[in-house]
Amino acid sequence: MDGMMIQDGTNEQPGIVPRVLEELFRQQSLDKSCSLTFSMSILEVYKGNLKDLLAPRSALRAYEVVSKCNLSIQTDSKGCVEIEGLTEIEIPDLAKAKWCYNKGRKTRSTSWTNVNEASSRSHCLTRITISRNGNTPDSRPRASKLWMVDLGGSERLLKTGATGQTLDEGRAINLSLSALGDVIATLRKKKGHVPYRNSKLTQILKDSLGI
Q1: I need a labelling partner for 80 at 20 to 30 A (CA). Which of 13, 33, 125, 164 fits?
Q2: Digit-coded pLDDT (tens) for 59-106
Q3: Alpha carbon of residue 172 to chain centroid
């Protein structure tokens, strides 16, 4: 099953992302001890580059989405990761959250192959930033981030019949999946150098997987 279907689902059977968004706003309405606010960013890792899927439209070409590419990954002194210049949109309610998510996924790179007519050609990462302010004077504001990652599927290049750009995309997907597997395997061993820098995907997720 394609990763996009697992994430999105249908109206009758919502996928992972719609259910997560609904649960976040449900918890927000139930928890009266603090004030929770959310914002959303969406990017894809495409052939080793980062593409902002919520970049604003051009004023000159309203029909065309101008995607920010080659975004820079920054790490501060505490090891926290940030993507410089990534668009972040406040989502005050579930309707706005779904609108942003649908906008982002429509911009994602897809292509035809022998095994999937709308194959994902990238890894798509949705980030929800959760800001928490307590309702007491001594409460400190806190911020957390939740990553929801739709990985491009590992491809047997001969089976997909990919050529040219589609072949390059498949190779890039396979390399980054291999890098992610190496990071997870190293973290499980709890020793040795963790090879986060081997792909943009693992660099982005460094402070979520472990530091």
Answers
A1: 33
A2: 444 444 445 567 899 988 888 899 999 999 999 999 999 999 999 888
A3: 17
The amino acid occupying position 93 is D
43-52, 134-143, 179-188, 195-204: the lowest-pLDDT one: 134-143
DSSP 12-59: SSB-HHHHHHHHHHHHHHH--SEEEEEEEEEEEEETTEEEETTPPBPS
Global confidence as pTM: 0.79
Q: Classify strands 49-52 and 119-120 as parallel, antiparallel or unpaired.
A: unpaired
Give the integer Cα–Cα distance in Å for 84 and 46: 17
CA distance 57 to 61: 7
